[in-house]
Amino acid sequence: MTLPTILLLHSAYGLRPAVHSAADRLRGAGYEVHVPDLYDGRTAETIEEGLAIREEIGRDELLRRGVTAAAPHSEAGLVYAGFSLGGSIAQNLALGDEKARGLLLLHGTSDIADDAATEIPVQLHVAEPDPFEPDDWLNAWYLRMRRAGAEVEVHRYRGAGHLYTDPELPDYDAQAAERTWAVALDFLQEL
């Protein structure tokens, strides 16, 4: 079986070097990886700036841009992946794509429609605690994903900051980031 193609979506900070580094890490493991720029070249220095860009563009437009980025590659069955905001978008795209092969969420999730149905494997990596992904939310998210039919793994990293895989941010935790990538690469190998 051929390795899946991965669509890797950036966080609210935009398409920054850490996303390209993550894509290069995945490419080094043999994957074809696409990293669309959902912000049209804009990046943010702070989370507040990033959230302002997100609000300016709007959720529907970000999803449309994600669909456009996925379309040329989705025929063979994509693995959708994303960081925080990108994870939220990736989740929505994966749940809407009958050919999706998997979903890798780094630091972020999204709400799930009551009628969602999927059998894709899902892996989530998240800080513990995480102000953007509180325990009550994650528990409800997990139950809804399981009810939808997904095979779900959740990996929590105690003491890490929200975007702990990004070496350019104060949240960075080198140990947690390396553990995340080791577990994520094992997950991807099984798809």
Descriptors for this entry?
about 190 residues, alpha/beta, Rossmann fold, six-stranded parallel sheet, 6 helices, about 20% strand
Short description:
Helices cover 40% and strands 18% of the residues. By secondary structure, it is α/β, with parallel strands linked by helices.
Your description of this structure?
It is built from six helices and six strands, in the order βαβααβαββαβα. Helix 1 (17-28) links the parallel strand 1 (5-9) and strand 2. The chain is globular, with a radius of gyration of 15 Å. The chain has one domain (5-189): Rossmann fold. With 191 residues, it is α/β, with parallel strands linked by helices. A six-stranded parallel beta sheet has the order 2-1-3-4-5-6, sandwiched between helices. Helix content is 40%, strand content 18%. Helix 3 (59-70) packs across helix 4. It starts with a strand and ends with a helix. The mean pLDDT is 96.
CATH superfamily: Alpha/Beta hydrolase fold, catalytic domain
What's the total helix number? 6
Shape label: globular
Q: Identify the CATH class.
A: Alpha Beta
Number of strands: 6
Average pLDDT confidence is 96
Structural class: alpha/beta
Describe the largest sheet.
Answer: 6 strands, parallel
SSE ordering: EHEHHEHEEHEH
Under the CATH scheme, which architecture would be assigned?
3-Layer(aba) Sandwich
Instruction: Quote the CATH topology.
Output: Rossmann fold
What is the count of structural domains? 1
Q: Which stretches are poorly predicted, pLDDT < 50 over at least 5 residues?
A: none
Overall helicity: 25-40%
Beginning-to-end CA distance, first to last residue: 9 Å
Main sheet: strand order: 2-1-3-4-5-6
Rounded to an integer, what's the Rg over CA atoms?
15 Å
